[in-house]
Amino acid sequence: MSDVFWAAFGGSIGGGLVALIIEGLHWFLDRPLVNVKLWPGFIAGDKTRYIFYEAANPHSKPVTLSSFGLLPKVKEWGKIWVTPQVGYHFPYQLDGGKSLSQWSDIQDLLKTLKREGKTPRDLKWVYFQASSGKLYRSKIKKWVIEELETEFQKMNKGR
Per residue in 48-62, pLDDT tens? Predict the structure, then answer.
């Protein structure tokens, strides 16, 4: 075969690979992605402590969220479901560039942990679950666990 054929063949293979890589990169940068955060705090004018759950979608593709909660260190213990005080109803479509926040009373969370025989130190992850079943999660910050543990100990001394 002639050199022209091999040059054309190699060029088409190379061009195809470059196109595939570019499309793969576009997909990777534009895939549904949710960043998850958890922190304790107050709502203005209220003395009740709350725990806030936030999901943010930094990409352009929407993702439908179906639930959120906490995961303990031991996978076999299962999920700890959280009932929000007020907020968005699930399933919820989180559009690209948007975020949503849910909150619940810290005491309700701590009572749930106590009822299940767990403490805040047993927690490891906060998550939002997509309707596809995919979990978007992040580790709970050490200072958040410490604050929850302090509240947990106060609650137990009160009894």
Answer: 788 899 999 988 889
